C-alpha cells in the first residue's frame, strides 16, 4: 500500500496496456454507416472493459487528424475523437474489476487497465515518468490534453475516465 500526495477526490485517469505493448485509451474503430461515434465508443468500451458505459456528445473533448504515421493503412487518414467520461470512484473500481475478468478483449487486445499516476512517492514517479513510456498514435498528447481539460479543484462532478473513438475519413 502506498501513500500518495492526492486526496480522496483526486483525478483517477485510466489507460490500458495494449497487446502491442503500447499504452492507449480504450476505444476503437467506429463504422459511421452503422453507428454514431458515441454508440460505437460505448460498444468498444463494452468489449474492452466489460461494463456498459453510455457515452454522450457532452463527453467529447477534442477531435484531430492523426499523423499519417499512425493511420492503419497508408492510403487512408484517421480522425481520433477524444472523450472524457466522469465516473464515481466505485464505478471506476467496477471497470477495473470487469476489465480484468469478464471483458471480451481481456488477455487478447487488452492486457490490463492502468492508472495514470498524478502523484509522486518520495519524489519519484508521477506523471513525468509515466509520459516517458511508449504510447500508441497520439494517445500521449490526448492524455495531456484531457488532463489539462480535467484538472480542476475537487468538485462534485465525479472522476474522469478517458476513452476515444476513431473513424476513417470517407476520403482517401
Ligand atoms: O489511444 C489511442 N489514441 C489515439 N489513437 C489510437 C489509440 N489507440 C489506437 N489508436 C490508433 C492507432 C491505430 O492506427 C488505430 C487502430 O487502433 P487499434 O487499437 O488497432 O484498433 P482496433 O482494435 O483494430 O479497432 O487507432
From TrEMBL:
Question: Does the keyword Heme belong to this entry?
Answer: no
Any single GO molecular-function term of the entry would be: snoRNA binding
Nudix hydrolase domain: residues covered: 1-140
InterPro entries associated with the record: NUDIX_hydrolase-like_dom_sf, NUDIX_hydrolase_dom, NudT16
Q: Which cofactor does it need?
A: Co(2+)
- Tell me its EC number(s), please: 3.6.1.64
Compartments annotated for it: namely:
Nucleus, Nucleolus; Nucleus, Nucleoplasm
Stated name of the protein: U8 snoRNA-decapping enzyme
